[in-house]
């Protein structure tokens, strides 16, 4: 029986000592009301909340969990290095090995810099591009997430208009709007930012068209600007290379995080030869950026990426989930919009402008032991099995039935209240 009394008590205490009870993407304020806020443990494909309820977890920590929580060999590499030395006065030699391995795997990259969060890597990418071009304007896709620094955080509270000076927006996959944004940047263009796929929240996902990706490359070349692909969320989930290897376009810079050490804290900026000097002459650093244990975990993660069939596996599990859910939805008279690559699924309902069907269905799934997200892309991890997927489809079937029989659906007002459905810029 699903219960949440421990979570509720923790939330009450959190209200007093944590602003808003929780902040940022880890806040469950924008999820159905009963979604657990606090978790106790995680193993493989499963997650246990503070009340001990177990979930098949399709959020994978919002991306870091690629091979399964608590992966044996990755965590052994981490622990071994932790015992030898972690945050020291300088990096361990394995920093060089990690840079060698990542640049060998990512075809556009000749050098690597390591940092902690995805935001560090996207912010450094912007600085390298500005240093390279000695220009200021960056062109970005409207609605794309690149992190939570003042220049890119989606909620403007606490930021100054000057933090977002020198930014021009385009519509993802819309070549004419990209050209128009570049024209507006005039002779001040430093970079075009692109997400590897359109993986914005609340809207259908889109693969990049070849035409759009190629045009972004050409526009950068024509203007002496740098092309940046933000692979923080999708990196190594879609390819064993930059995600834009799928469309045959090489960026100059790419930012990475999340899955590169299967959950251990490390991110990276990778770059092409021509940006090497510009990267060497910005000042970027952090107290924990050179910690050796996450680098050891990342080296083992790279080995698994190269040597296992994790990619084909997550793709086929994702396809199995997608078709099973479609069949179950049809049986109960619902139509789903399942968009994006199957291994990074986003699942929403047709005819659900207020997200209330989605919220009711996700809530029912959660209370039956499947952790889905109603408006953010999810992730398949390599620790999931066919049995987990089939179980999920069965639970989903029951949740569809529950929503169909429920009659009235909750009104979802919390989204509008926080203004997140409005243009994030
Ligand atoms: N870029 C993308 C595409 C992301 O998905 C994220 C995190 N969700 C970031 C940047 C920022 O990464 P972090 O939260 O580690 O700073």
TrEMBL record:
Its cofactor is pyridoxal 5'-phosphate. GO terms for molecular function: glutamate-1-semialdehyde 2,1-aminomutase activity; pyridoxal phosphate binding; transaminase activity. Pfam families: Aminotran_3. Keywords: Isomerase, Pyridoxal phosphate. It comes from the Bacteria. InterPro entries: Aminotrans_3, Aminotrans_3_PPA_site, PyrdxlP-dep_Trfase, PyrdxlP-dep_Trfase_major, PyrdxlP-dep_Trfase_small. Coiled coil: none annotated. Gene3D superfamilies: Aspartate Aminotransferase, domain 1 (3.90.1150.10), Type I PLP-dependent aspartate aminotransferase-like (Major domain) (3.40.640.10). SUPFAM superfamilies: PLP-dependent transferases (SSF53383). The keyword Hydrolase does not apply. Its EC number is 5.4.3.8. Belongs to the class-III pyridoxal-phosphate-dependent aminotransferase family. This is Glutamate-1-semialdehyde-2,1-aminomutase. It comes from Hyphomonas neptunium (strain ATCC 15444). The gene is hemL.
